[in-house]
Design a protein that fits this description.
The structure holds 2 protein chains of 2 kinds. Chain A is an alpha/beta fold. Chain A contains 10 helices and 18 strands. Chain A folds into 2 domains: 176 residues, HUPs (Rossmann fold, 3-Layer(aba) Sandwich), CATH 3.40.50.620; 123 residues, 3-Layer(aba) Sandwich (Rossmann fold), CATH 3.40.50. In chain A, helix 4 crosses helix 5 and helix 6 runs parallel beside helix 10. Chain A is elongated. The model of chain A has no long low-confidence stretch (mean pLDDT 95). Chain B is an alpha/beta fold. Helices cover 25% and strands 31% of the residues of chain B. The radius of gyration of chain B is 21 Å and the shape is globular. Chain B has one domain: Rossmann fold (3-Layer(aba) Sandwich), CATH 3.40.50. The chains are: A alpha/beta, B alpha/beta. Chains A and B meet through helix 5, strand 7, strand 10, strand 13 and strand 17 of A and helix 3, helix 4, strand 9, strand 10 and strand 11 of B. Strand 10 of chain A pairs antiparallel with strand 14 of chain B, so a sheet runs across the interface.
């Protein structure tokens, strides 16, 4: 059966949702093999979760060299595994770093690469939204085993047990791949909420919030939904929140199940980053705000009345 | 230091961007072309490095004839010369081919660092800088929100989901920058006038040591098979708050089984 490689993303011993989505879709396209690339010991913590979502095999490439240098070693490892396994397809979750790994791997193995797919058919034809979501294209890779990066929240994860048979891969990282040394990794936010890039619910605040202290309104609404918190560019530029929270053309692009835009006018640059969300709710005091054009449900109102009221209602329905 | 800044001319985001149904490529005539937004930040970074460390800034563009306009704009901001790769054979090239062409062009000049924007607003693939590093076999220092140069050592702060990584490499290296990195300067009138006299070297594929078989639509490793206007989002409802706006939203979410 055709082997499909799925690059595994994980944090703190937990497989990320985006990976689990890819294992699910990989099952419909062939036999999934998870690929774990990390420091020694990474795969051990993940094996059960990978088995739970259908990984028939788990390729394990572990060494300090693989994570001590930026991007290039991971591409070497993935290309080496692909060279040995000759898979029919390689799937990677779309994150800024993963896209770079995917592209470099594709070039190494002589394959075409497609980025930011939101759907895949049985022939690995990818659907990609372009131009801020205005146009949808169907693309194919015409050379080699397709390497495709897939947007998180594009597929529903479904468990299915499999063997997750471990295959240890010895990767010797070339000198050329050790050119960019990672000196340190600095965390600037506490990860107490879901990651913006792959959260299934996002609550974002815009200029209508007024000031940094008022952003608490957004955070409370987000917490009532277990959502990630995002922001428009105006809010980031004003310094109320860090840049990592910016949703838009020059920030993060999200495609969650639910996006709630609070006090956000909906300028093109912002829409480009969230337009393909499945359900969009808009809360804004300006009836002319462009955000209402793409909202499934919108309320023209004072956000300081409606957002807390919504938070309270959600709380009531939970109990 | 010899600094090369990659610049791409793209359709204006604010315009009604289209694909050309004749060959499913970006219709570059449908909307006014502009310099890719993040490239101005790449250029500003190049100019600041030149001001701090001496040297020259060369703007490199791969694109049709009209791309000259974007080079002139970069020259008016302070770049010293332009290198424009223009060849009909390049039409419809994919990211991998584009990276090979950029690498070929770099092979014709002296350079220490290449600085690119992290992504172009038309494709948004964000993979060309990494691919150029791969083709050249040099380090990639991408997604930089800060760049520091010390002799032949370049250190960046690479943005991550939760903060940043400090990454360091020796030149020659490929750098890409994100918007957070700086504030691009506006060209002065003097700069605009001076730009008209700065040289732009135009090269075709034959000058670059890149094979015709590696580029262009027919040789691309990916293909757009078809496209359509995205289904319009079903008309939504907008209501005016009458003291129960929050309740109404909750009811809507419940009806969609979202809460």
């Amino acid at each position: 059966m055709a082997e499909v490689l799925v690059l595994v993303d994980s944090a703190d011993g937990t497989v990320k949702r985006a990976t689990v989505e890819l294992l699910t879709v990989a099952r419909s396209l062939g036999e999934p093999s998870a690929v774990v690339i990390g420091v020694p010991g990474t795969a051990a913590a993940l094996k059960d979760q990978l088995a739970e979502y259908g990984a028939a095999k788990v390729y394990v490439a572990e060494s300090d060299d693989l994570v001590g240098y930026s991007v290039a070693p991971k591409a070497e490892a993935l290309a080496q595994i692909a060279g040995d396994a000759s898979p029919a397809l390689i799937l990677v979750a779309s994150t800024p770093e993963n896209k770079e790994i995917a592209a470099r791997t594709a070039l190494k193995i002589g394959s075409g690469v497609l980025t930011d797919a939101v759907a895949l058919d049985a022939n690995a034809t990818a659907t990609q939204p372009i131009f801020g979501g205005a146009i949808s294209v169907q693309s194919n890779v015409s050379k080699g085993a397709p390497v495709i990066t897939v947007r998180p929240n594009s597929f529903a994860p479904e468990p299915a047990s499999a063997a997750a048979e471990e295959v240890t891969v010895l990767v010797s990282v070339s000198d050329a791949a050790k050119g960019a040394t990672i000196i340190d990794t600095v965390v600037e936010e506490k990860a107490s909420r879901p990651q913006l890039s792959d959260a299934s619910v996002v609550v974002s605040g815009g200029r209508g919030i007024g000031n940094a202290a008022n952003f608490a309104v957004i955070e409370k609404l987000a917490d009532s939904l277990g959502a990630a918190v995002g922001a428009s560019r105006a809010v980031v530029d004003a310094g109320w929140v860090p840049h990592t929270m910016q949703v838009g053309q020059t920030g993060v692009t999200v495609s969650p199940q639910l996006y709630i835009a609070v006090g956000i006018s909906g300028a093109i640059q912002h829409r480009a980053g969230m337009q393909t969300s499945k359900t969009i709710i808009a809360i804004n005091n300006d009836p002319e705000a462009p955000i209402f054009e793409i909202a499934d449900f919108g309320v023209v109102c004072d956000l300081f009345q409606v957002a807390p009221q919504l938070t309270e209602e959600i709380g009531k329905r939970k109990s | 230091m010899n600094i090369v800044v990659l610049v791409k001319q793209v359709p204006d985001t604010a315009g009604d961007r289209k694909l050309n149904p004749a060959d499913n490529t970006v219709d570059r005539a449908a909307v006014d072309p502009v310099i890719n937004y993040i490239d101005e930040f790449a250029l500003e970074e190049g100019l600041q490095l030149k001001e701090a460390h001496g040297g020259e800034v060369t703007v490199l563009t791969v694109g049709p004839e009209s791309a000259t306009e974007s080079i002139r704009r970069a020259l008016s901001m302070g770049a010293d010369q332009g290198l424009h790769v223009s060849d009909e054979a390049l039409h419809g090239s994919d990211a991998i081919a584009t990276a090979k062409v950029i690498a070929g062009a770099l092979g014709t000049i002296e350079w220490d660092v290449v600085i690119a924007g992290s992504e172009a607003t038309d494709s948004r693939s964000a993979i060309v800088p990494a691919l150029v590093a791969e083709v050249l076999g040099v380090p990639q220092l991408t997604l930089a929100r800060k760049v520091t140069v010390d002799g032949s050592s370049v250190t960046i702060e690479r943005v991550t989901d939760s903060g940043y990584q400090t990454v360091s490499a020796s030149t020659p290296a490929v750098i890409s920058v994100v918007e957070k990195i700086n504030e691009p300067r506006y060209p002065s009138f003097k700069g605009i006038m001076a730009a008209k006299r700065k040289p732009i070297d135009v090269k075709s594929l034959a000058d670059l040591n890149v094979e015709v078989g590696a580029v262009g639509l027919a040789n691309a490793w990916t293909r757009v098979a078809s496209f359509e206007a995205a289904p319009a989002r079903g008309a939504g409802q907008t209501v005016k708050d009458e003291g129960d706006g929050g309740v109404k939203i909750a009811e809507y979410l419940a009806s969609k089984k979202l809460i």
